[in-house]
Structures are given as structure tokens and as C-alpha cells.
Amino acid sequence: MKRECDDVFLDDLEVIIPNLSARYSGGTAVNRTIAPLIAGRCNAAWLGVDRPEGVKGLSFGDLLALRFRAPKNHAFRIFHARRNVEMLAGLVLKALGLRIKLIFNSAAQRRHSRYTRFLLSKMDAIIATSEIAAGFLEHPSTVIHHGIDVETYAPPADRLKAFAESGLPGKYGVGVFGRVRKQKGIDLFVESMLQLLPRYPDFTAVVIGLTTADNRAFLDGLKAQVAAAGLEKRILFLGELPIEEVPVWYKRISIYVFASRVEGFGLTMLEAMAAGAAVVATRAGAAEIVIKDGESGVLAPTGDVEALVASIEPLMREPEKAARIGEKAREVVLQDFNRDREVDEIVGVYRKLWDV
After folding, report:
1. 281-291 pLDDT tens trace
2. CATH, residue 243
3. DSSP 3-state assignment of 161?
4. Nearest CA among 299, 262, 283 for reference residue 183
5. What is the value of pTM for the model shown?
6. Domain around 18
7. For the segment 229-251, what is each residue's pLDDT rounded down to a tens digit?
8. What is the mean pLDDT of residues 109-120?
9. Long-range CB contacts for residues 26-31, cutoff 8 Å, separation at least 24
10. Which of 145, 101, 60, 104 is nearest to 339 (CA)?
11. 305 and 167 share a domain?
12. How many separate domains does the chain show?
């Protein structure tokens, strides 16, 4: 049986895209989104789990074979890491004799641990996902904002009809997507809905995302609050959905609430904007970079339920205003945060290394 990475491909291989975490996360989602486009511009292969279509798979046996195969097109191959474990793997592979240069994508908006700073000091290039993230690095970096697949995340032809097809009560949806944990501000969203939904009977709220075992008590507490308020049919916890179903829900909701207390970038915010939903975002991650307050979204302080309520309510009171802001948000993503632009800039970093 012919291997997926045959000998000719190994000779031509230019970029290795590792994904070495068993847990599906935002980093995995970003990797899966852009890897096929990178593979369309370079000879690239995926190492690890959750490989997307359009990218060849690379086994650890293939890595060992690469020790004895000089790159055909360049003096070295690119190993593009997004996690500490992948930086470490790259360093080990380099020590074993692979001719690679190491790149790391940094999204964290905090001072890195001593261990991470050590790994970063060994990278040949660093990409920061925002100017804020770059400010926490002790090494030079290239700022490249995340991009969105604007075809997958696109507005519906009729948002009211799209919501009606969900079978949920009311006419409009308001939602938050992401891991159900305190960092993401899911509790702030639920508490704001407990105040707002009784005033606006045409709205239903949805929470979509994975709850890990260590956050089960957190979720149970939120459900208890909802039950005590008698709003079980209007604040729904849908759990983790198949990845292909998530864009459908962006089309259904009119308002998206990005309530994070701490965030690296905030990819769901961009996805919602691309789908034409009005975004209310706390000033976390890249929200202040992405959103012009009152035009392409609404900004609110972090960790403040009353401020969040005050920011969401005008859009619930005037759904037409939410629609207008959603249209502007889509324009912003098309112009500044599309996926092709992100990939072009990433490949530009590769080429700078190859040209040295």
C-alpha cells in the first residue's frame, strides 16, 4: 500500500505543521483552518491529530526518514509550532539532525513562564497574533492577525428564517460559543441573560461549547441559576457540537456576546462578525483592535455584568440596529481579517527565513 507521504513528497517537503495536543482547542481550530491554504502555497504536511482535508499526513517514521534527506527546494524546512510541546518537539528534531527552522505563533497576553521564555529564545522566528501579544514577548516578532474563512462564516439570506429553523422559541437568538469556563465569561453571559430575557420575550439565548471535567461544577451552577429563574427553555446549553454545525448557529443568532475575562485573540468574535452578527465584546483579546465601538460592534469592560447588560440591551431593543452593526462587522472582516491575507503573511515569514 502506497504511503501518503511518499519518497518524492518527502524530498519536496517545505513546511511541517505540528498539532500535538490530544485536546481539541482554539489553537487546533486555527491550525486546521489555515493548514490547507498553506499547503496550497508550499509543500506542507501535517504532523499529529485532527488532520484537515487538503493536507498530507506526516508520520513519526517519516520524520526519522527526513534526518537523511536534505531539503530539495531550500536549505532547511519550516517547523511551525503553536504550543510549548510543539516548540520542544521541534528542538528535539533539530538536535536529532533534521534541517529545520522553528517558528512559533504567540497569542498570549501575559508574561510567559520561564519555561516558555526559554523555548521562545530558541525559535528562529515568532509570529504574534496581535500588537498586544507582541508586547509580552522579549524577542522580535511579526504581528499577523487571525483571519476567517469568509465563505464558511457568512451571513444567511434570511436570519429570521434561519433562527426559526432551529425550532427554538422567539424570533431572535443571542449566543456565546467556546469552552464553558470562567475565563470565557460564560457566567457573565448567563447572568446578563437572566436580567434581559424577561424584558425581551422574542429572544432566546444559546451557549455552545465543550465543558471539561474540571468545569462540570461551574456548568451545573449556571444551569441551577437558569432553572431557579424558570428560563430553562430560553437559555439553552447545547454542549459541544460537530465543527461543521457551528457556522449554522452563527447564521441563526442576531447578537454574539464575547464575554471573556482573559483571551489570547478571540477567534469566535471574528467568526460571528464574518457571519453578520452584532458582536458585544469585553475589552479582552484583540477586541479593541478588531471592533470600532458603536460601528462594527460594541465594547464593554471585562468582568462587569451590569456593563454587559447595558451594552447588550440596546441591540435587543432595536434588532434593526443589531442588523446594521452586523453588516458593518462583515465588511471589516472581509477587508482586514480574511483568511487568505493571514496565510499570505505567514508564508511571507517563511520566505524571509528561506531567503536569508
Report:
1. 999 989 999 99
2. 3.40.50.2000
3. helix
4. 262
5. 0.84
6. 7-147+338-355
7. 999 999 999 999 998 899 999 99
8. 94
9. 26/178, 26/264, 26/267, 27/82, 27/83, 27/107, 29/243, 29/267, 30/82, 30/146, 30/267, 31/82
10. 145
11. yes
12. 2
